[in-house]
Design a protein that fits this description.
The chain is mainly α. The protein contains 18 helices and no strands. InterPro entries: MetI-like (IPR000515), MetI-like_sf (IPR035906).
Length: 336
């Protein structure tokens, strides 16, 4: 009897008959698969609950009146449903103007950061130059060292900005760049913006895993370095560039440190959220005409509402870009 006939007869047997023939191995395998599936489900459910539960709480609180916040009977479902918290938060943050400004700045900053980080990452991956390991160690330090440690240095540098002493030599004074967007754009163009070290590292690792035969073939066909980079390497790096651009946009959108330091005069959603509680106190004082103590619960309610209003544009962005983002992450994971 051939193996095909044996397999056909074995497949026609019931589960318990096949388990008996296997000496109980089939039942043990089935039980272990079910146990692993249950454990996996519990872990994934727990992780999803930890991520979603705070957001669901914020959504519930954002539709509550101040009376509901102190009602012990009201837990998750508001008794007096209201959208007034959203109108108040939008007014306190100057939401429409803040969203427009944040969108423009986040897009331009993210595009500038990814453009320069792609060039630097490609250089680290493909070229040899003096002190290469030293400069890459500096990139790692940019990732490890918190930006707060150089805050005072950045303030002094852009308060008394000079280029090789030429400005002071010609005009007798340095340039005060504080209060403008230019310092942040200069930092981003110099790969010292928000999370730039991480982008350089990710892009460098990606380029290192692309076979060098592609470039060699392009050089043989007569392409120069720049043309090879633009026509051959950039299309190969679309997954990692897409990922880094989305990271850069989201982190810039929610950033409070660099935005407050360099873009403090510009109305942004991140800085507006940071000042929303103080703005609420001033608003109530202006309405009542006297200084009033704001309850902690109501302050947290307006803060939660403002937080949701900041998250909503990012969720919309993800809904439109989820396919490209997931494909880029999966492709990056395979190549790295």
């Amino acid at each position: 009897m051939t193996n095909t006939e044996n397999n056909s007869r074995y497949d026609k047997l019931g589960f318990w008959e096949r388990n008996k023939l296997s000496g109980g191995y089939l039942l043990q395998k089935k039980i272990s698969e079910r146990v692993i599936s249950i454990i996996r489900f519990i872990l994934l459910f727990g992780m999803c609950f930890m991520i979603l539960q705070p957001i669901l709480n914020k959504i519930s609180v954002s539709f509550m009146t101040e009376k509901d916040l102190y009602n012990p009977i009201v837990i998750s479902i508001p008794e007096h449903f209201t959208t007034g918290n959203y109108r108040l938060a939008a007014e306190l943050m100057n939401y429409r103007q803040a969203v427009i400004n944040s969108l423009l700045i986040s897009l331009t900053i993210a595009a500038l950061q990814i453009a320069v980080c792609t060039l630097v990452g490609y250089g680290f991956a493909r070229f040899e130059f003096p002190f290469k390991k030293f400069w890459f160690a500096m990139v790692i330090l940019v990732i490890l060292i918190p930006p707060q440690t150089i805050a005072s240095s950045l303030h002094l540098h852009f308060r008394f900005f000079d280029i090789l002493g030429l400005c002071q030599l010609i005009t007798g004074n340095t340039i005060n760049l504080r209060g403008s967007k230019l310092p942040y754009y200069l930092m981003s163009a110099g790969c010292m913006g928000l999370k730039n070290g991480l982008y350089i590292y990710m892009i460098r690792q990606y380029f290192r895993n692309i076979p060098g035969d592609l470039e060699e073939a392009a050089y043989v066909d007569g392409c120069g370095m720049l043309k090879t980079f633009v026509r051959i390497m950039l299309p190969q790096a679309k997954p990692i560039i897409t990922s880094c651009f989305l990271f850069a946009f989201v982190w810039q959108w929610t950033d409070g440190f660099y935005s407050k330091m360099f873009l403090g005069n510009t109305k942004l959603v991140s800085t507006g959220l940071a000042r929303i509680v103080d703005s609420l106190g001033a608003y109530i004082q202006r309405i009542n005409g006297v200084k009033t103590t704001i309850s902690v619960a109501y302050s947290n309610c307006i803060l939660a509402t403002g937080t949701l209003m900041i998250i909503v544009p990012l969720i919309i962005l993800y809904l439109f870009a989820q396919r490209s983002f997931v494909e880029s992450i999966s492709s990056t994971g395979i190549k790295m």
